[in-house]
Amino acid sequence: MTALRCFLLLWSFLLCATPLLAGDPRPPQIIVSFLAEPSPIVQYGATRLVYEMLITNFSRSSYVLDSVETTAGTAQTKFDGAPLAAMIQHVGAPASPNRAADTKIDAGRSVIVFFMLDLGRNVPSKVEHLLHVLDDQGGMHNVMPSPLFVLDESPIVVAPPLRGEWIAGDSVNNRPDAAHRRAVLIEDGHAWLAQRFAIDWVQYQTVNGVRMTWNGPEAQNDSYFCYDQPIYSVADGSVVDMTDGLPENAPHSGKYAIAIGADTAAGNHVVVQIAPHRFVLYAHMRPGTVRVKIGDNVRVGEIVGHVGNTGSSTEPHLHMHIDDQPSFLAGNGVPYEFTEGEASGPVEANVSSLGAMSIGPIGPQRPFTNEYPAENALVTFR
């Protein structure tokens, strides 16, 4: 037997034997990664970890993500069934009307799994995951990706951007219809989630027994209670980007006053750098009200503009978030907390609706210090 034939036989044996040595003769052909390393946030008294897992199927067959187990320090959680399906977004595909099918990963497709873990009192240095995956023959496989490391960073604490009572619209949550939470965008070959902790701030009043964000002609911006309210800088910093002069949208008209792209989505806006790799975005301002220009230094509490309805906006509101890049779309959204105020618990509200918002019952408010508001909470800033 020639040396070459011996080598080929040995190589063939190793190829066949390696999966057996690895413990799974048919390991799932999926790649698991994460959009970013997370850091904890305190939301309405609970310490939480918010992050996203990307799963790509490299095979010619489909898989089903049966369940995911997470271990974060002493906190262990298992996600399966309908709750897991609600956490999954299929990349490049419309949402399936059949919730049971949402855990299926078709050949050559990718899904994003959105996690929000309650950590209790201890913040771990890493999170471990165990995926239980069914192949197209019904066989069960276990996949354990590399641990996700948790950044040892506290949320940046900032002052209120507004005064009075406000609804913290679409503050970070894990509902399937969470618009900010699922706004994954691609730029320069990178997946960004700048709006991970974004909030759409609106005001409401009770009109004829119904909680409304407006009273009067629905299509007029000045009918909305928050319209033209002053916006305050949440920290000292330097203005690195701004736009003014873009026209306003007619509320709930189903169309925008200008074409929406990466340079117009924020409408009239201001971006202020408040720390290294920390940028505050104030978006959708009323035309002609932006008070600062690029290069200006601003102080906490200084008015930077007024609430409007410009860019990618369906009615007047302030969109605010903090990320690590001076961009509305291309950055990694980071946790932040407000110095103090009063806030309710979670509130049912369809703040991502293209039409009129509906706001459900609101519980009592309690004082807070250094917290981020619950989903759609009623927040009072002094």
For the report, how would you describe the main beta sheet?
11 strands, mixed
What order do the helices and strands follow?
A: HEEEEEHEEEEEEEEEEEEEEEEEEEEEEE
Mean pLDDT: 91
Unreliable stretches (pLDDT < 50, length at least 5) are 1-21
β-strand number:
28
CATH homologous superfamily label of the largest domain: Glucose Permease (Domain IIA)
Distance from N terminus to C terminus (CA atoms, Å) equals 88 Å
Beta-strand content bin = 35-45%
Structural class: mainly beta
Can you tell me the CATH topology of the largest domain? Glucose Permease (Domain IIA)
Helix content: under 10%
> What is the approximate shape?
globular
**Rg over C-alpha atoms, rounded to the nearest angstrom:** 24 Å
| Count of structural domains | 2
Just name the CATH architecture of the largest domain: Distorted Sandwich
How many helices does DSSP assign? 2
CATH class wording of the largest domain: Mainly Beta
Walkthrough of the structure:
The chain is mainly beta and 382 residues long. It is 7% helix and 38% strand. It folds into 2 domains: 30-149, Immunoglobulin-like, CATH 2.60.40; 156-381, Glucose Permease (Domain IIA). It has helices spanning 3-22, 81-86, and strands at 30-34, 41-43, 46-57, 63-72, 75-80, 88-90, 104-105, 110-118, 126-134, 140-143, 148-149, 156-158, 164-169, 185-187, 190-192, 199-202, 205-207, 210-212, 230-232, 237-243, 268-275, 278-285, 297-298, 303-306, 318-323, 336-343, 366-371, 378-381. The strands form 6 sheets. Strands 12, 13, 16, 20, 21, 22, 23, 25, 26, 27 and 28 form an 11-stranded mixed sheet that branches. Strands 4, 5, 7, 9, 10 and 11 form a 6-stranded antiparallel sheet that branches. Strands 1, 2, 3, 6 and 8 form a 5-stranded antiparallel sheet that branches. β14 (185-187) and β15 (190-192) form a beta hairpin. The N and C termini lie far apart (88 Å).
